[in-house]
Design a protein that fits this description.
Shape of chain A: globular
Oligomer: homodimer
Order of helices and strands of chain A: HHHHEHEHHEHEEHEHEHEHEEHEE
Helix content of chain A: 40-55%
Strand order of the largest sheet of chain A: 2-1-3-4-5-11
CATH topology of the largest domain in chain A: Rossmann fold
CATH superfamily of the largest domain in chain A: Response regulator
Amino acid sequence: MVRIKDIAERLGISVSTVSKGLNGASDISEELRQVVLDTAVEMGYTTKSSRRMGNRRLCLFVENMGYEKMDEFGYDIVLGFKQSAFRHRWDVDIIAITPSFQMSEKYDTFLLRNGYCGAFLLGLALHDEWMKQLETTTMPTVLFDNFIPNNPNVCYIGTDSYEGIALAVNHLYRLGHRKIAFLNGSLYSMVSDQRQEAFESAMQELGLALRDDMMARGYYVSDSAKYHVPGFLEAGATAIVCGNDLIAQGVIEECIRLKYRVPWDVSVIGFDDITVAATSSPSLTTIRQERNSLGKCAYVSLNSLIHHIPISKTLLRPSLIERESAARLWTGYGSRY
Amino acid sequence: MVRIKDIAERLGISVSTVSKGLNGASDISEELRQVVLDTAVEMGYTTKSSRRMGNRRLCLFVENMGYEKMDEFGYDIVLGFKQSAFRHRWDVDIIAITPSFQMSEKYDTFLLRNGYCGAFLLGLALHDEWMKQLETTTMPTVLFDNFIPNNPNVCYIGTDSYEGIALAVNHLYRLGHRKIAFLNGSLYSMVSDQRQEAFESAMQELGLALRDDMMARGYYVSDSAKYHVPGFLEAGATAIVCGNDLIAQGVIEECIRLKYRVPWDVSVIGFDDITVAATSSPSLTTIRQERNSLGKCAYVSLNSLIHHIPISKTLLRPSLIERESAARLWTGYGSRY
């Protein structure tokens, strides 16, 4: 069990300062208080007061997504949500769910039976059983990357896919690329649909041709690259935009296997900016999602729904992170290096 | 100047309870505290502590929109924003602006010179000078009903126009209407463009014909009705969806002038649910925007931007408010009344 002393040691501050931060004393700065609270949550500390509060409990359901290790996509989202909830004295339970769990338990019943005031759902697929039930749920619910029409109890939170994909395509265009391929994520995902639409409209706005042999759907896994990359390269692609960073890593491996060098022969751009994007070789140019902020905004949206403010959608800005995997198109004149 | 005693009288509670609410004492309920704070703001009270805080100042700019009287569109938005800001010890100044003011003062310079940490802008038009400057502003800024691409310092807040217009069109369809006209708002407005797109796609999804002689742009004023309603009726429209409630009121007056009875001969649906919608005759079926919630969400979004959380977009759910101005299409069989 994490003690106040452990938090003090990690932050290099005194035990009494940590205490003040946890207890909301007014003689430490707001900034320091927030660092203390955030660190306490990250280390798994729970205050007596949050244990005392009784029925202030939220549930975070996760499916199809890693979140326990720091380098997994869900880690920072879960952390941001817990940090914000903790600051407002909510307890958060995290439950990993499966399609069969959703078949055996009704969503509303599960929340009510277990005394939850609301929930945040990460990673559900379009065809999941609970997605149907969310159309009529009466429980305050925030969905990451999924949208339910017409139900004022459900809010969608995510990163603006349209702006993100446009950033990637426009960046490649500025680097001289015209034959740009797109290896998208899963078929059963709302954001994959958005990113597909975004890719097509970004290409059209630049006057670039959309070719069926330069677009495909992967499954959010690196393995999909080997089925599609050979065709893209054969069709003359000089750059490949990917639906996420894992796909991008698979694309880079497949390019190397086929003796194409990244970025000299092919540029590759990912989406997400997961931890390994910065350290892989070549490091990955990607579209960043602010995952800790997504978690924090998910809490704010859920809290709004609980207070009967009918938030429907909260989107964060993506940003372009320029690294090594995308470079200016080599035009054949002068030295290649 | 409003005193604690005035707030106590208005709420019918003791002066000491109001004091406790204003000072954050822990022995009154959170619900009562919020009512006290909200009422204090509505009555124009400022606590000593908010006056003491120094540089915690936000600015609310308003253009093209009434906000000082309770029945004006902007009133509840401004109130919701001020209520949330006050609760977090921010001072809010409200400044009515004009196009010429925007030409004479640079946006960022004005905020910096006057010590504002961020701003909420209501009612700007697409061609306004400050809209250009917002593309590159470094000041945390929330825009009502306007979107600036790619700038992480600017957030768009509004009501989901697509869902709202679809609610109106689908409601009329369920009532038997097939010849549905649309009198939209101003040409120079992003939400008018959204509502136009929404109307066209809602009609197409229902398999209804889009006709040029049944769609027009007004200017968010009731006066536009007389130019367009005669043509709609001549083309056989049995229902008219309007870009806002003021336009809808003008449409109803024009119908009556032309000897058409609302709703027996023509159904009319507005957008916004302004105060008079409930009391006009016939009372107005409309798409409600939660304006107090919009103001509260604008504060939450601005506070997020100030804390470097790059919110891009926050949308609220619209809801259909059924009143007298829309009714089942009379099919010619049986009694008309």
